[in-house]
Every structure is written in structure tokens, then in C-alpha cells.
Design goal:
The protein is α+β, with helices and mostly antiparallel strands. It contains nine helices and twelve strands. A hairpin with a 2-residue loop joins strand 3 and strand 4. This is Aminoglycoside phosphotransferase domain-containing protein.
Length: 320
């Protein structure tokens, strides 16, 4: 099948790069849109194939319960991953938030609550748990991007030990002392499938009223994390005194018991802030990793981290 009015399939990576305004200066570059193809190409050296795999798994497992862009295929070119996906025509919740009524804001948060609850229903095999990316590789959260090793981890305790020790990577003298924050990290929770960046800039809503969520985007950080991670990370990406953080996030993400949550989130913010602050002086990013199996109870997904052809029934040709 060839798209109406087109005599060829999708653009090649070289054609995508030619249309990028910041490919050489801003890693990762902004995605390139092809409006006439209803296509968006996310690409760059920091883009991972696992994001495409995650989108496909979410779409296959949940259909419309968790709205995400359809992935058509991906290709690796000169060390950069190119993900070809559906162009969702909507507005970010960030751009529209101030213009929404209280009732519309409440409706959006109700929709988010359903989406997040569906996502958190995915359970790992209890006999073989892990904390890591969707393909059981290292964590892709930007908080850890400069760490030379970042998983995967066999359980919460090992992850929490590692996470609380990260500031010592730059402060060796502190290793002489017991970490005062470690006890605030719970080791007896469950591991949840986590988006990892529920900022309202990653939530697309319909341009018409009443507003409805039409896509949750940017799954680059997704994976299996401790159950507290989604909530704490959402708070971390928002303004400390803002309405979004203090009023609305607790409506779609269940807060922990308030006193414990205050201590836990303080610890999370402190460690994450220091990681990012110190990491600018380091250059130790690791891109090691090969495909493994994603062991989730709802869906077992065989993953091979290589180029993947575009669905020819939709576009009539392979990428490149």
C-alpha cells in the first residue's frame, strides 16, 4: 500500500536529518514531523529502540485504555536510532492547562487516573522480578544518564541500596558514614510498569472541548521501577509550589502516607538534584546492552535490538 498521493514510502534517515534544524547542535534533536504522512520521526544518539518496543507493547496490551502513538518501525543509522511513529495532532496539557476550567482539569485528572491505574496493573513474574528497562536492560531515566552502570537490578533492596549510594560517587569521603536517607526507601513494595516522566508536557489533549487525553508520549524512561517512583518522579519534574504538583498530581497518582511520603520525596529530590548537578562534570555514559526478554505476566514480548522494517501493509516500503 502506498499513501494516497505518494509514490513512495517513508523518508530515509538521511532525509530526516536533512530536515532537522538542530541535529548537530542539540542532542537529542527535536523530532521531525511529516504532516502529509501523519508521521513523526524521533531520532538521535540518545534515542533507544526500547522506547519503540514499549509503545508497541502498551498499544498491543491496552488498545485504547492507554492512548499512545502507533509505531510503524525503526532503523539504526550511523549510531542513531530513528523511530517512525504516528503524528498525534493535539495540544500539550502544559500549553492548555491555564485555560482549562476547574471542571475540565478534574476531568483530565480522572482520565489520567484510569490510564495510570491500567498501566500499574501490569505485573512481573513473581519468580523472576527485576528493576530495569522494558527489555530488562539498564534504566534509561535521565536522572541516571551519566552513570557508568545503572542496572538491571534483581529486587527493590538492591536498587534502593544503589540509588541511595549514588551521591557518594562524587563524594568519596561520605562513604565513611551511614546514609541517613536509606531507611526512607521501602524494600517491601512491588515493582510496577512505570512511564517515568508524567510531566504535563508529555500529555496530549484534544484541541476541542471538552478536552480529552488523546496520547501519552515520551516513553523513553519507561520500565519496571519501585511503586513509589512514578509519584516521586512526577513531583520532581514539576514546580515545587505549583498547582500541578500540590493539587492535581495527587488526584491521579496515589500519594503514600503523608509523613513517610514527605521524607521519601525530600530524599528523592535531594539525591536526584545532586546526581544531575554533578553529572555535568562527567562523561561516562554507557550504551552497552543487547536484547533480552521482557518478562511481564500480561505479555511476553521477544525483543531483538536491531533495525525493524516498517509495516509494509501500511506504507508499502521499508525505511531506508
Amino acid at each position: 500500500m502506498v499513501i494516497a498521493g505518494q509514490k513512495r514510502g517513508l523518508p530515509t534517515p538521511i532525509e530526516v536529518i536533512a530536515l532537522s534544524k538542530d541535529f548537530k547542535t542539540d542532542p537529542p534533536p527535536a523530532p521531525v514531523k511529516f504532516d502529509h504522512l501523519n508521521l513523526l520521526v524521533k531520532f538521535g544518539s540518545a534515542v533507544e529502540i526500547e522506547e519503540a518496543l514499549c509503545l508497541r507493547m502498551i498499544r498491543k496490551t491496552f488498545c485504547d485504555k492507554i492512548p499512545v502513538p502507533e509505531v510503524y518501525g525503526w532503523k539504526v543509522h550511523n549510531g542513531c536510532v530513528f523511530i517512525y511513529m504516528e503524528l498525534i495532532r493535539g495540544d500539550t496539557l502544559h500549553d492548555r492547562w491555564d485555560s482549562l476550567s476547574e471542571a475540565e482539569k478534574a476531568s483530565i485528572c480522572d482520565q489520567l487516573q484510569v490510564i495510570v491505574s491500567s498501566l500499574r496493573q501490569v505485573e512481573q513474574d513473581p519468580k523472576d522480578p527485576f528493576i530495569g528497562s522494558i527489555a530488562r536492560q539498564h534504566l534509561h531515566d535521565y536522572v541516571f544518564e551519566t552513570m557508568p552502570w545503572k542496572g538491571p537490578f534483581k529486587n527493590e533492596r538492591k536498587f534502593n541500596d544503589w540509588f541511595s549510594s549514588l551521591p557518594q560517587h562524587w563524594l568519596p569521603e561520605s562513604r565513611k558514614y551511614r546514609d541517613p536517607y536509606r531507611d526512607y526507601l521501602p524494600d517491601n513494595g512491588t515493582i510496577k510498569l512505570t512511564h517515568g516522566d508524567l510531566h504535563h508536557g508529555n500529555i496530549l489533549i484534544s484541541p476541542t472541548r471538552p478536552p480529552r487525553i488523546i496520547a501519552l508520549i515520551d516513553w523513553a524512561h519507561a520500565g519496571g521501577y519501585p511503586e513509589y517512583w512514578e509519584y516521586c518522579k512526577a513531583l520532581y519534574t514539576s514546580h515545587y509550589e505549583g498547582e500541578w504538583r500540590n493539587v492535581w498530581i495527587p488526584k491521579f497518582l496515589d500519594p503514600w502516607e503523608q509523613y513517610e511520603l514527605f521524607r521519601l520525596n525530600f530524599m528523592f529530590d535531594d539525591i536526584s538534584h545532586n546526581l544531575i548537578m554533578f553529572s555535568h562534570e562527567m562523561n561516562c555514559y554507557s550504551t552497552d546492552g543487547v536484547g533480552m526478554l521482557s518478562h511481564w505476566k500480561i505479555i511476553t514480548y521477544e525483543i531483538q535490538l536491531t533495525s525493524h522494517p516498517v509495516d509494509q501493509s501500511r506504507f508499502g516500503s521499508r525505511v531506508g
